Amino acid sequence: MLNYILRRLGYGVLILVGVNLFTFVLFFTLNTPDDMARLNIGGKRVTAEAIEKWKIERGYDKPLLYSGKDQGARRLTNTIFFERSVQLFAFEFGASDSGRDIGYEIRQRISPSLAVALPTYLLGVMATVCVALLMVFFRATYLDFWGVTGAVVLMSISALFYIIVGQWFFSSLLRLVPISGFAGGWNLAVFLALPIVIGVVARLGADSLLYRTMFLEEIGKDYVRTARAKGLSEAAVLFRHVLRNASLPILTSTVAVLPLLFLGSLIMESFFGIPGLGSYTIDAINAQDFAIVRAMVFLGSFLYIIGLILTDISYTLVDPRIRLA
Asked: 259: which of 93, 166, 188, 303 fits an S-S bond (Cβ 3.0–4.6 Å)?
């Protein structure tokens, strides 16, 4: 088991290094510090002195990979690559292009993102599994037909449509919840009720169809026919056997969403004014703050790799034979 986990961790480190190198090349070779300075200062009509001053204030005046004027280890450490790329592995995110501490901002914004994403994730998994099991239980009936039809309609509509309609109907028309904003304490549920419901509904169609397909595939296997031959009810077969044996693909689609729990939803947080990491990333893109964007790309990659490793480990708990793979 330990060797299996170490092997997966090794793969994850290699992937993270590759993503970090690709991000560095993308931001500092295709898009040079001079280009960043022009975008932040105000276009092409800027003086060379203003560009140089902007680069010095933010540490972009240093060599990219190797500093020949320094001695010893500073030849490698006194570079943009070390300060802006290597230090990310120590979770030293540095300062944004506007001068604010990125690490502090991330710590402040994780809680609002989790407050939205965690209930949406848990309620979404329970709702989609229950809906899929109901469609399988009543398979080949009108309930199954209309369930599949409703799921196809739900998955055919953009999440943006649900947000706009939800804000108009529940906030503007019925005035049941605020249209946007965020507050702590007891008011938190009022502000988060609509985003959570919309998040669950937006994923209900696609995920329920996926799980329904998995359950139907399991139903045709020999162990299900054996369970029925022993006299087990259809509900017992579904919940005690089919659901357990279909848990592997379900784990794939659930544990791997770990980054979304921390990084939040870019669209959801922006439309509802939630001060989480999703809206933080959108604001950085709009402000062309490349330091924040690089930090969020690295953090998202790290969390996604952790999610995949946890998925692999959970596989071994469900089916120990996978440890030999």
From this structure: 303
